[in-house]
Structure formats: structure tokens, C-alpha cells
Design brief:
489 residues, alpha/beta, Endoglucanase, Chain: A, TIM Barrel, 3 domains, 9-stranded mixed beta sheet, 13 helices, 15 strands, globular, binds 2-acetamido-2-deoxy-beta-D-glucopyranose, Glyco_hydro_6_CS, polysaccharide degradation
Length: 489
């Protein structure tokens, strides 16, 4: 029965290099999932049908990662992380176990690096970005490698390779992703710190508030603005983050807190009912997380403040002072180090061609530098004690094609900005760092008008199309960012 079908499948077999499973030694590919429909069972195992060919359905016990709750890798054999369980790959945005590399019962030396000993409490003092190696996210490295595989221009490939030398923040944008990424990356950073003897800083984005992204659609979250989801935010999300951070105490950590949320509380309560519905959850969520995470000595937090063309106007900045001062004191005794600006946005650091006038809709802060200078003064006068900033420069190196600075989705003309670094501007002691919070190449939102999370901005003229869903890889955007990098690669 099997042999009669085999001839039709020679080409498919040759083309496909899938991960090892029991059927491969018989000359058949593995089915893409262990839950594939069973068509036939024999002494070898369970057979499914895919692409007109028999395939072996991977046995649950044949892949060591399944009992741990992770699927087996089906198309990759590149390990981005290895621990006491085995070698891990990444597929479809999730970890997967690479078959045949389970270290169970073997090679005891694996445990040395992969279960690093947690040392004594690390305590931030001064600028949390200063004096550390920045952690390189292995998942992003894998995304860049996959992007390089689609390129043929050697000059572009050389630029893309450089991207692997720079650090990006790790987005904990769902409960599941938090469970997948947080501890794994803390552990990997700790292993590196332990090996090199140099502190390794990891930056995470906390991003799962109930009623998230209340004024837009593209990044709507999994939790709704209701009491039961707000309870889940606390117990299944913040409490777990707290538990992990309380475990890994010997390494520096920075948290970027809930992009766009408080800026929406400053400007969008009156005009957007969804933001009014979210208000109490945003405020309560912040109070809760600042209380819990703001007391950890090795953790420094920055609250998101939108960007220059959101809160830059005089009346918005004044209101912002009140909102942020209130939020920070509601989280006492937790502490907040400062504020993150321009997260996932395109506003240039300096743009001398712009000044307050009709072109900027009378915004006195038409670039990030002027915005942060003004916010520093306003937050100080609002009574906020710790006022420091970081600016996301992952995509603000080049003026985009947008004709209105409020455009935020997949802007054409994008270019990578300043590289991540501590204290980038002399004389601006309150600017802790330039850092890449939004990984270049991950989409802002889909341009598919029929998608549930389609947002009109992603269909505007200067939004690059076709664009995939927020967070998915967007090759064209990535390539343009590389070409327009400033400073250039
Ligand atoms: C997995 O094991 C195979 C065979 O021992 C080896 O060739 C391969 O390099 C290993 N892969 C990883 C990612 O460790
Ligand atoms: C390759 O990319 C470089 C810029 O990185 C560009 O100048 C050149 O025209 C490209 N070559 C081709 C053949 O597209
Ligand atoms: C809150 O929203 C969730 C969906 O995320 C829903 O399952 C739940 O029933 C809602 N709870 C209330 C109290 O409305
Ligand atoms: C640099 C550093 O912290 N090294 C430590 C790594 O962990 C081992 C124990 O597994 C310690 O002995 C090292 O001092
Ligand atoms: C680079 C790119 O995709 N640009 C597109 C942005 O959207 C406009 C309008 O839809 C297109 O004309 C561009 O080609």
C-alpha cells in the first residue's frame, strides 16, 4: 500500500528536509503535526496523508519536548537555545524541540551552561543601561537568519547580518508568550553572564493590559476590559512575571511598561469610549504592577509616554504630568526609573527642518529630542522624583514618507536609527539610553482590510502594503529599514 504511492512523491521528498521522525528511515516525510488524521496504522506507526503522500505521524514519545508542552520541530534543525532538556528551535513563533538532540541521560556537561547558578542579588544603581552587555534575543536572530535566506543581494545580506549584533526588547505580549519567553531568556542571559563574568542586561516589554490598544485596532490584546480579564492580568500575567524575576535576581533587567496605554489616558478618554471603558483597568493594572515589580532591586521600569507627535503639545504635556505623577504614586512603595518614548514609532530624534507652525500643527516638540527636553521639565514640575528617559531608535533614522506625523503603520521610507547605547547624548544626563524596543521587521499591523484587527491607518497611502498581522515578519519593511539605516551599516 505504501510503496504504490511512493513514486508520486519522490520530488516532494527530495524537496523537503523535515526534522527526523520514525518514517524518514523508511523513505517517507514526517507529517507536520502529531495530531494529523490517522489514515493507516501498521507496525511502524501511524500514517497520515499530506501533499498527496504518506507521512509518518510523529509519536508523542518520539519527541522529548512534547511532554514539556512544546511541539516537535518539523522544518528546522537550527538550535537557538540548548538546555538540560535538549536543543530548541523556533517555528510559528513558538519553541519546538529538535529531535535527536535530547540530552536526557547523556552529556552531563550540558547542565553547566544551561542551568546557570543564580548568584547574589544584583542592584541597579544609576543608569540601568550602563556598564552591561545587552542581551541578544535568539528568537530575533532566528528571524533575521530566515530573512537573510530570502535575500540575494550580497550588500543587503551584509547589512542584515549586522542586525544580529544588536539587542532588541523581548515582547511579552500575551500570557502564552510571557510563559514562553520570559524565563527562557532570563536563563540564557544568566548563562552568558556566568560564562563571561560580565553583567548581561535583558529588556522586556510588559504588554497585555485588559482592553489593550483602546484607541486603535491593530494591536488589540487578548484580555478585554472586564473584571474577570483584569483578574487574569494580575494572577496569570503580572504575578508570574514577579515570580520569575524574584527567582533570577543576579542579573540586570529593564521593563518597558505597557506601550500607548497611559498616553491614551491623557488624550483619548473624551473621544474614545473604548478608552473610557479601559481607564480603570489601565490605572489599576499600573498600580498593581508598580507595587509588585517596582520593589525589585535588579529591575528598572520605564513607563511608556507615546512620542513627540502624541503628547508633545503644551496642553497634553501638562495633563501628562498629572496622569503620570498619580499613576506612579499609586504604585508606592514600588519605584519607576523613568519613561520610554517613541516605542514602535518613527519620529526622528532630531529634525531641524521642523518647528512650531502650521506644518507641525503648532506642536512645539516636533522631534524626540525637543519632546524629551520638555517632558523632563514638566515631569519634574509635576513632582515626579525619578525622571529619566529612553528613546526607541529602531526605526527613526530616516524621515519616512508620511505627510502627517500621526501616521504610525508600516511607513515607507523607514530606516534604522541610532544603535542601542547608554548615555548617548552628552549633556542630557536624564537620557539613559537609545534602545531598540520594537524589533525592525516585525509588522505594526495588517493591511488586509478583511482582518479582524485591520486598522485604517494600515491602509493609508504611506503604509507599506501588503502587510502581515502585527508582530509577524515583514520582509519588505525590514529590507527598507536596512537600506535607509542612519547611521548606515
Ligand atoms: C543534533 O544532533 C546531531 C547528531 O548528533 C548533530 O549533528 C547536530 O549538530 C545536533 N544539532 C544541534 C542543534 O545540536
Ligand atoms: C544591492 O543593494 C545595494 C544597497 O545595499 C544597492 O545599491 C544595489 O543596487 C543592489 N543591487 C541589486 C542588484 O539590486
Ligand atoms: C470578560 O471577557 C472574556 C473574554 O476575554 C470573557 O470570556 C469573560 O466572560 C468576560 N467576563 C465578564 C465578567 O464579562
Ligand atoms: C562568572 C561567574 O559568575 N561564574 C560562575 C558560574 O557558575 C559557576 C557554578 O556553576 C560558578 O562557580 C562561577 O563562579
Ligand atoms: C514600499 C511600498 O510598498 N510602498 C507602497 C505603499 O503604499 C502605497 C499606496 O498603497 C503604494 O503605492 C506603495 O507602493
Amino acid at each position: 500500500m505504501k510503496t504504490s504511492i511512493a513514486l508520486t512523491a519522490v520530488a516532494a521528498l527530495a524537496a523537503k528536509a523535515s526534522a527526523a521522525c520514525w518514517s524518514q528511515k523508511l523513505g517517507y516525510p514526517c507529517c507536520s503535526s502529531s495530531s494529523a488524521q490517522v489514515w493507516f496504522t501498521d507496525n511502524d506507526g501511524e500514517w497520515g496523508v499530506e501533499n498527496g503522500d504518506w507521512c509518518g505521524i510523529p509519536k508523542a514519545e518520539s519527541c522529548w519536548s512534547q511532554p514539556l508542552g512544546y511541539p516537535c520541530c518539523t522544518s528546522t534543525s537550527t538550535a537557538v537555545y540548548t538546555d538540560g532538556d535538549g536543543a530548541w528551535g523556533i517555528e510559528n513563533g513558538d519553541w519546538c524541540g529538535i529531535n535527536g538532540n535530547s540530552s536526557q541521560g547523556s552529556t552531563p556537561n550540558v547542565g553547566n551552561d544551561e542551568n546557570p547558578v543564580i548568584g547574589s542579588q544584583y542592584t541597579h544603581s544609576g543608569n540601568p543601561f550602563k556598564g552591561h552587555k545587552f542581551f541578544i534575543n535568539p528568537y530575533y536572530t532566528a528571524e533575521v537568519d530566515a530573512a537573510i535566506a530570502q535575500m540575494s543581494n550580497s550588500s543587503l545580506i551584509a547589512k542584515a547580518k549586522k542586525m544580529k549584533e544588536y539587542s532588541n526588547a523581548i515582547w511579552l505580549d500575551t500570557i502564552e508568550n510571557m510563559n514562553n519567553w520570559l524565563e527562557r531568556n532570563l536563563k540564557t542571559a544568566l548563562a552568558e553572564q556566568n560564562q563571561t563574568g560580565k553583567t548581561v542586561l535583558t529588556v522586556f516589554v510588559v504588554y497585555d493590559l485588559p482592553g489593550r490598544d483602546c484607541h486603535a485596532l491593530a494591536s488589540n490584546g487578548e484580555l478585554l476590559a472586564n473584571d474577570s480579564d483584569a483578574a487574569r492580568y494580575k494572577t496569570e500575567y503580572i504575578d508570574v512575571i514577579e515570580e520569575k524575576l524574584k527567582t533570577y535576581i543576579s542579573q540586570p533587567v529593564v521593563l518597558i511598561v505597557e506601550p500607548d496605554s497611559l498616553a491614551n489616558m491623557v488624550t483619548n478618554l473624551e473621544n474614545t469610549p473604548a478608552c473610557r471603558d479601559s481607564e480603570k483597568y489601565y490605572l489599576d493594572g499600573h498600580a498593581y504592577l508598580i507595587k509588585k515589580l517596582g520593589v525589585l532591586k535588579h529591575v528598572a521600569m520605564y513607563l511608556d509616554i507615546g512620542h513627540a507627535f502624541w503628547l508633545g503639545w503644551d496642553d497634553n504635556r501638562e495633563k501628562a504630568g498629572k496622569v503620570y505623577a498619580k499613576v506612579i504614586s499609586s504604585g508606592s512603595p514600588g519605584q519607576v526609573r523613568g519613561f520610554a518614548s517613541n516605542v514602535a514609532n518613527y519620529t526622528p530624534w532630531e529634525d531641524p527642518t521642523l518647528s512650531r507652525g502650521p506644518d507641525t500643527e503648532w506642536n512645539p516638540c516636533p522631534d524626540e529630542k525637543r519632546y524629551i527636553e520638555a517632558m523632563y521639565k514638566d515631569f519634574k514640575s509635576a513632582g515626579i522624583k525619578s525622571v529619566y528617559f529612553i528613546d526607541d531608535t529602531s526605526r527613526n533614522g530616516h524621515k519616512t514618507d508620511r505627510t502627517h506625523p500621526g501616521e504610525w503603520c508600516n511607513q515607507t521610507g523607514v530606516g534604522i536609527g541610532a544603535r542601542p547605547q547608554a548615555n548617548p547624548i552628552s549633556g542630557m544626563d536624564y537620557l539613559d539610553a537609545f534602545y531598540w524596543v520594537k524589533p525592525l521587521g516585525e509588522s505594526d499591523g495588517t493591511s488586509d482590510t478583511s482582518a479582524k484587527r485591520y486598522d485604517g491607518y494600515c491602509g493609508h497611502a504611506t503604509a507599506m502594503k501588503p502587510a502581515p498581522e502585527a508582530g509577524q515578519w515583514f520582509q519588505k519593511h525590514f529590507e527598507q529599514g536596512l537600506e535607509n539605516a542612519n547611521p548606515p551599516f
